Amino acid sequence: MQTTTFAELGLSAKVQAAIEAAGYTTPTPIQTQAIPVAVTGRDVLGIAQTGTGKTAGFVLPMLARLESGRARARMPRSLILAPTRELAAQVAQSFEKYGVNHRLTVALLIGGVSFDDQLKKLDRGADVLIATPGRLLDHFGRGKLLLTGVEILVIDEADRMLDMGFIPDIERICKLLPPRRQTLFFSATMPPEITRLVNTFLKDPVRIEVARPATTAKTITQLFRFCASTEDWEKREVLRELIRAESVKNAIIFCNRKRDVAILLKSLQKHGFNAGALHGDMDQMSRMATLDAFREGRITLLAASDVAARGLDIPDVSHIFNFDVPWQSDDYVHRIGRTGRAGKEGRSLTLVTPDDGKQLKDIEKMLGAPITWIGDAPGADDLLAGKRRRGRGGRGGAFAERSRDRSSGGEGRGRFGRNGAPHRSDRNGEARHNGERHAERIKQIDGIEAGDQPREHRQSRHEGPRQPRGDRHARPQKPRPQPGAPREVRSEQRGHSEAHGAASQRPQRPDRKRNVERDHDRGPAPVGLGDHVPAFLRKTTRLAQR
């Protein structure tokens, strides 16, 4: 049944008053189908792309159900799990907006915030607990949180949880919750791992699907621009041309790597653009300050990694620029979903290089329509060249990006393996490079000038004394002892040679028979201490003689 107003969705009067105060009159399709089911207490499996109003789809019925009752210390009544800090903070803002007529306590447990402040809220009692999986398990492991009182569980952006490796944490958290609870599960896509999670922890859920998985909104104009070079500085030039050609009110520029976000930010600021950055290495305070500045219009361009691709409710984003083609087509959907929200028009522009042939085909297959190009479209050979360079051990695509990043001191494997050894494809060239450097070093040490002939081989220790080197570091050479020299002279010379490590100057030892005869001529060896008597023994002997 299609409804047109929030009054027909079964919400309480307090919630409807908050919705009217916020200025909303018509629910979105996901809200129209999910809210009436969630109010009754049944499990919900919601499948909808980002920007369709999923947050209000579970916040509004949760507020209606929590109107009665009171929270106890460290025992929240409802739990909302979000993959990122920004999304969790955004959900908390929705509770503040829609819960103005309720006296509900909301606790936000995310990283980058002091544990003490969060513990104070838990000690007072929290009706609604909004958390990222890692920080929630930290509190639980310290014994500061009890989950036996949770009545409603919400898992938002489940496919993003899968991408970030949070599924084991989600399974552990679900096992800590009471079995008699309501679970609201929302995801943009349904990969097999998410389907397994739904079958394990949801009981007879109502499946609500308002759009085909991994599809883009019809309000977004999607354009692609081919860049024949894979050099980042040339891509940045093309990006600046596109920004100047478009009527950009504000825009998010996505990169695949955090390192590229920082470089792109410096480039934009250098060329006079009002830009900021958002990536995973920033502390929570800086991330929130940057988002607030972008929402308020103090920053026009936001260079970001995929940490900002999902779940962020940034209204009125006019443009999305993909500096890098995302490695997964699902990420493309979530990136461009930052614009064209709530029925508004938006534009997305993606830079394509010869290394992006495979990703481009995946996106085109997912869209189900031919790609619209700005300027000349690339030929089949242009993209096939990048495809031939791709593959295991190849130098194209994402592997090439990681390799260039490694060579510049960034992340990725690069030319070297896990143990620091070069890959097979690089060992021959690396060996030649090391050999040339070694030969050059030998020339510098030996004082060989250009045009001189280098030594062909090292001198053997049996070939006589080595000629002194021509530089100031050369060691003086000692003459070899003559066979007819006295034994004391030979010993002194041999000791001096061994002290300096010159094995080539060591004299030939006499054979064992001659040593035995020489020792026999000296007479019998002394017995006892002989003349080497310690001082304390000599003193005792003198006393005894007295």
What does this structure look like?
- It is a single chain.
- With 546 residues, the chain is α/β, with parallel strands linked by helices.
- Among the domains are: 6-209, 3-Layer(aba) Sandwich (Rossmann fold); 220-394, 3-Layer(aba) Sandwich (Rossmann fold), CATH 3.40.50.
- It is built from 20 helices and 14 strands.
- The protein has helices spanning 13-22, 29-39, 54-65, 85-98, 115-124, 133-141, 158-163, 167-176, 192-201, 232-245, 258-270, 284-295, 329-336, 357-367, 380-389, 397-407, 424-446, 487-499, 512-521, 535-545; strands spanning 44-47, 78-81, 106-109, 128-131, 152-155, 182-187, 206-209, 220-226, 251-254, 275-278, 301-304, 319-322, 346-352, 373-374.
- Strands 3-4-2-5-6-1-7 form a seven-stranded parallel beta sheet. The chain has a seven-stranded parallel beta sheet with strand order 10-11-9-12-13-8-14, with helices on both faces.
- α13 links the parallel β12 (319-322) and β13 (346-352).
- α2 packs parallel to α3 and α3 (54-65) crosses α4.
- The chain is globular, with a radius of gyration of 38 Å.
- Mean pLDDT is 75; it is low at 385-435, 442-464, 488-505 and 510-521.
